[in-house]
Automatic annotation (TrEMBL):
A single MF term (Gene Ontology): kinase activity
Domain DAGKc intervals: 1-130
Gene3D superfamilies: 2.60.200.40, Probable inorganic polyphosphate/atp-NAD kinase, domain 1
Organism the protein comes from: Euzebya pacifica
Protein name as catalogued: Transcription regulator
Keywords, sorted A to Z: ATP-binding, Kinase, Lipid biosynthesis, Lipid metabolism, Nucleotide-binding, Phospholipid biosynthesis, Phospholipid metabolism, Transferase
Amino acid sequence: MQILVVTNPAARRTKPHLSRWVADRLSDVAKVDVIATTHRNHATEIARDAATRGLDAVVALGGDGTVNEVLQGLAGSPTALAVLPGGSTNVYGRILGLPRSLTGATSILFQALKENRVRQVPVGRANDRWFAWCAGFGYDADVVREVEWHPRMKRYLGQTSFLYHGWEARKRAAETTIDIEAGPARPKGRQRGALKRERVLGAAVVCNADPYTFFGPLPSRMCPEATLERGLDLTALTDISLPALLQTMRKALTGRDVRDLPWITGWHDREYYELTASRPLPVHTDGDPVGTTQHLRVEVVPDALQLIV
């Protein structure tokens, strides 16, 4: 077995000696090479080349941004993705049940490689961008973009920086509307539903898994029914006032169903969604800002990813 470890030296827990330790630990079950990224989208270039060369797996050692970049190069190919925690939040790894410690997660990966534990999972696609578990359009993508544009504040304030930037983003979202068309429920799903259209304010999130993110140790469950094996869930807001946002956050972080709130609308296990905004809005995939658009098509692609877990 031949695998490649892609590491992001800018992530919080990916020092060179840790990358070497991971490679040494996995070398008993595979031939291992390590490449460190040097620029944005470099992980995509590396992963795409690895897939072209027919490598068995690419290990994303970094934060969720690194995972998303590697996914762009592997989706639709026979080369598998594996994840090791190296960032500050590591949402996808935690969704997969991996421990937050690099030592523990590497031990699990070692055993998975030894036993050849590979599963096919659906992957989401937002226009031409793949996502592993979530995409955002409008408010939350705006917040993510602002946080990324102010790295020094993020470094000093951590996740609190999201709350700071959320205030200004809320004002912009309140002046925007999004028309949503929800596609039919997946044929294999238990839910039965036809097309549905609705208008909301400038805040919508689409999930391929649960939770949507974490705030410290607490999962934020914006799409509590979403799973890796099913279609896409969408949650949107019709009220983006400060009281509504605070109550939505409280519900999501305490494990209660946010869809019980009167200003929340959403759908479960759908094949696709078409979102059209009154102006171009920011988009994120897996917490990684990817530009702006006025129209976003989000769809699920079955069995698009080979995943080592």
